[in-house]
Amino acid sequence: MQLTGTFRSELRPLAKIPTSCQLSLLRYSSDGSLLLAAGRDGRIHRWRLPSAGLPIPAGDGKTVTAGPAEVLAPWTGHNGWVSSLEISADGQFLVSADTWGRLACRALSGDSEQPVWEHGEAHAGWLRALAVNATGSCLASCGSDGMVRLWNPADGTVLRQFSAGGQDLYSLACHPDGVRLAVGDLRGGIRIFDLRDGSLLLTWEAAEFYRLSYIQEVGGVRWLAWNGAGSVLAAAGCIPENGGFVQGIPAVQLISATDGAVIQQLRLGDNQEGFVHQVLWHPQDYWMGVCSGQPGRGRFFLHRVGTEKPFCQNPQPLANCHSVALHPLGRQVAVLANEGTYGQRKSMAREGIYPGNTSPIHIFELPAADPVS
Amino acid sequence: MPLNCQSDQHRVSRRRWLGTAAAGTAAALPLFDPALHAAALQRSAKQVLFIWLDGGISQLESWDPKPNTEFGGPFRAIPTSVPGIHVSELLPQTAQQMQHLAIVRSLCTEDNAHSSGVDRIQRGDPKNRGVVYPYFGSAVTKLLGPNDSGLPPYVWIKPLSGGFMHKDAGFLGPQYGSLAFGDGKPPQNLLQHPDVSDQQQQERMEIRAFADQRYARGRPPASTDANGFVFSMGLELMQRRQLFDESTFSPGDVQRYGTHDLGRHMLLARRMLEAGVQVVKVNSYGWDTHGDNFNGSYSLVRRFDQPFAALISDLAVAGLLDQVLVIAMSEFGRTPRVNGHLGRDHWPEAWSLCMAGAGVRRGIAVGSTSDNGTWVASEPYDIGHMFHTWFSALGINSRETAWDNQGQPLPLAHEDCRPVSELLL
To answer: Where are the domains positioned within chain A?
Structure first.
């Protein structure tokens, strides 16, 4: 549904949930009662929330607390970092992946963390992304080994596997038709495959998302997302200027699914704002994204196709946003930010105090549509 | 005992460079032959390969992994060829050469800024006596004295531009600086113009020498000496330009070392060592991974792993590890804490380096850090300890030898430090 009215262009802060470590990705369960986070501590962090979303807090709205979020025991069993989370099409299962290549499927009902099925080495090395197709018949995974693997979500058996260009694969997105799969790689390659036979249908090169800086390959198509109609593919990343510090301009390309034409190329900040780490489409056919660059820099923003500027972004600076999850009712979002200090303060070292950084979760109510007056 | 080494010992005589010229033009450079090169090099002095990973390699993504800990990052640790020693999974090929390597995991140094850290580390961070100490490469060149390679004693293979880098030499004087090959290329305009005959070239040199002598009268010798030294080096290289011809590397070696900059430069470094250069420094830039450290390390460390392992293997097969001291390091390590840009910042408090070769014990990991990698858990070693250790490995007694800086005796390395005996044969 295309929204034709104007927007109240502000986000209302509802809650700020503290966390104990850095996180990489957020997901709501299909009924909205669980908020799940991939931990850079190898655990899956969980909170129970009201299914209808968080209530509007009393007071001035400037000072928010964790609200009614109930902290559940995190799930263990992964190694390194938990790198990706995906909810099965029927909403009953959570599939998770880690940087050591493990893939696991757990039932979301109940508290047992025992996997329904798992593979210790689903990929050789960093398993970077997961995607479930709309029909629920296929779970796709990709990794730094350059492989795409298709799994039966019910039992974890391999349906098919194929190389997707030989490069480090960063991102996946299943088309709403349930048949096509978009795959993004380190060097800006975007390929569309047919899930039924693994055949390559289309290739795009988003070369601006990649740079070789000395011997460091920098960038990558960090996220892919189809809109609800399947007519537009959003590809997110960064236009990197260098390696090391990785200064770069957050960028998104909107690509037509019909002819592969680039509908829009957006540069969404200065060279300190870094990567667009994630893009989501709202059912009202606007898209939202998060970016994160130099420490302290980062934003959450809402955008409509065809416009150059976001129509809404977070009301106060959020440091280093890495993920956003849309509540199933479409009215609230959870945004993953970063909190802490720069790493090298020697005074802290002398005192023997050396805490890690954390990733607080900010929950916002999205702007409501107002009728055109 | 103050070391009394005159700068003209490093000057190349006209006779010598002409002799080298004849040898150099007589035959094309042979491809790598371990037996042949081992025999040749065993006659010469010790050599050094100093690999500088500028900006700071993360110890947690290389020599001192802490998988599944708070700051351990996304990568695994893998076993090496030495039971009990593990390194990051980003070093799979180097892991197979561990029997030749010595890792130091307990470095604790002072400086967490690049601008001062690079100098302090490469000069050994001596006590401040109002003089500028030489970089390790310059110091070794002076201490080992000239060999018979007919090549510059200290070359630096690096990305970007080249030229003569006199600042390396500190108080030793500019002639102990390094000759940098920008992107592994020889200095420009190295070739003798085809219209100039050898006879004419010789006459030109004699005129030049005459002019140099007149210019030097009444001027401080340091600058004119350096000028002449650099010119002599240029002449030497003119005769040995085949060293730089990448087409003479075997395709197999090119693939083994990698076609990226560091691979090409390490392969050239091997050739320079084979040809008898005393000190070869190889720089790699871009290691200051304040942002996206883990994807950055995935790219950087693996591109270091490939040529480093290949070179260690080649030196070992050729029997050259007995005389070539290999050091791979940065100005500091990187913070255990991960910042909001998924980077690691500067961390001199607890970091690592890797060494191998001449005089160094093999297949060991010395020192340790705390379980989460934040602090040194064993005896901490400063860079002064490393300088003493490296000098000892090269057969130089740094506790009993001193620099003679125009009559001022100065210790070779920080007098509060000592060689690390665990690391030495």
So the answer is: 2-372
